[in-house]
């Protein structure tokens, strides 16, 4: 951009310096996450030093914490957040690791469910089941949108879902029965957002938080070293937190470089 050619060594030194200076801020962000009542979680695969690792995100409306782990089991969150998990409502997809943890409560991402239902509708347009479940979920989201700050009892919504889950789908493609059984397992966690305005109906914010990782993966395909990956996540956590609080991301990065 400026017609300059900095050495690779200088770039590495700047990144390492930023990571060291960022650590106290990352520790503070982690404490904020641990004290939050509602937290969105997500995980995504990444290649680091020729091995498959996992990028984890824990985020709220004001805080983002991204980090790297060698696996995607529940132990990752247990080690990082400990007893604080018991005070959180977790907004997640249906990955089984989240449901063996002792969270205060859960909210399943309805955006994920709606995508699965849309696929089933396209798979067999002659049936009504996936369309009826889709309409129910969309109606619940609309209910929250028109009453953004009010408590809405979820019992009637769950009853309507239960009626749909009693349907016999064995005559349809196996994918219909698979989703029905999946919904039965998580039916208690589908409409919690109606009873608590602080809970979002989807986990889209967590997916947006990992978007820069996916852009980097698309461009370079991998991280070459663990240190570089960890530095990326530390800097991204601070920059994204700054953005959520209407602060300059460039200024946030410049600040940790000048400490």
Helix content: 40-55%
Oligomer: single chain
End-to-end separation:
26 Å
Largest sheet: 5 strands, mixed
Number of helices: 11
Q: What is the radius of gyration?
A: 21 Å
Strand order of the largest sheet: 3-2-1-4-5
User: What structural class results from the helix and strand content?
Assistant: alpha/beta
Number of strands: 5
Strand content: 5-15%
Indicate the mean pLDDT. 94
Describe this structure in words.
- There is one protein chain.
- With about 260 residues, the chain is an alpha/beta fold.
- It is built from eleven helices and five strands; from the N terminus they run αβββαββααααααααα.
- Strands 3-2-1-4-5 form a five-stranded mixed beta sheet.
- Helix 4 packs antiparallel against helix 5 and helix 10 crosses helix 11.
- The protein is elongated, with a radius of gyration of 21 Å.
- The two termini are about 25 Å apart.
State the gist of this model.
The protein has helices at residues 8-34, 75-81, 110-123, 129-146, 155-165, 174-186, 192-195, 204-209, 211-220, 226-244, 249-257, and strands spanning 38-48, 51-59, 64-69, 89-92, 105-108. The chain contains eleven helices and five strands.
List strands and helices in order, with pairings:
Elements: H1 8-34, E1 38-48, E2 51-59, E3 64-69, H2 75-81, E4 89-92, E5 105-108, H3 110-123, H4 129-146, H5 155-165, H6 174-186, H7 192-195, H8 204-209, H9 211-220, H10 226-244, H11 249-257
Parallel strand pairs: 1-4, 4-5
Antiparallel strand pairs: 1-2, 2-3
Helix pairs in contact: 1-10, 3-4, 4-5, 10-11
